[in-house]
What we know:
Blueprint: E1 31-35, E2 52-57, H1 70-73, E3 78-81, H2 96-100, E4 114-116, H3 127-134, E5 140-142, H4 158-166, E6 170-174, H5 185-193, E7 196-200, E8 216-217, H6 223-234, H7 237-241, H8 253-260, H9 266-285
Parallel strand pairs: 1-2, 2-3, 4-5, 4-6, 6-7, 7-8
Helix pairs in contact: 3-6, 4-5
Amino acid sequence: MWGTLPSYETLQLPAGCEITTQRDRFAEAEAVVFHIPDLGRIHHLQKRPGQLWVAWSMESEALYPRLREPVFMQQFDLSMTYRLDSDVPTPYYQTGLLQELKTPVQPKLPGNLAALFVSSRFNHSHRLEYLQELMEHLQVHSFGKLFNNRRIEGDMGRQTKLEISADYAFNLAFENSISTDYVTEKFFDPLVAGSVPVYLGAPNIDQFAPGEHSYINAANFKPAELAKYLRALSQDESRYMDYLTWKELPVRESFVQMVEKVSEPAFVRLCQAVQKRQFNNLDIRS
Length: 286
């Protein structure tokens, strides 16, 4: 993935499964994984009979449309993407999220209305235009490389981001593109931190919400309208706290089931999917 080999050495793989990055073993492999976003031409590769080809991607279909081109995808036997309907779903959450969501809400610092973390210029969702107009009507503290107006001292990665987010009433969680099931840490981290995500992205975002009334969908507002709504909420503690009540309730059962389906590491589940496909093929031939 983007020139970096996957980490699999410590995985407890199913019996009979081995993962290798040695390309000279291509012909003997039962399955070959291709990272689609940075994949070149593969017309010269010979696919051994019975060999399975796996399409792997964590990137949005909106940015990499080959992922939804039937002719291109017909080359592959299994998919391993963020899509929940892929053969091996690899969403932007793991089972540890269920425990993290129990983090209690902290009091918000005065003047800390909305936080923003955006560093990428990928803008298929037109988030940059939306944010630029929104910031004309609303005070936003931007910690990313874009629209930057706040510095981070002693940045420790995600932990620092969670600590900052916890101090803000709202976190602007704007995806770089809009695609079904493409819900990243931008949405989940504010929920963990006890802030309210103001989300722009996947049209089925409610499927990824751990509780009722736990986020604000920016797609329902024009920028000026959203600014007015957020200011009104910040001045009405009761209405604002309604967005955090879910923290005191059991997480939606449908959300728990969705998260628990990916309890094992992705490459372990890929091995299981390959073995299942092999077993089914043997059963058909017999």
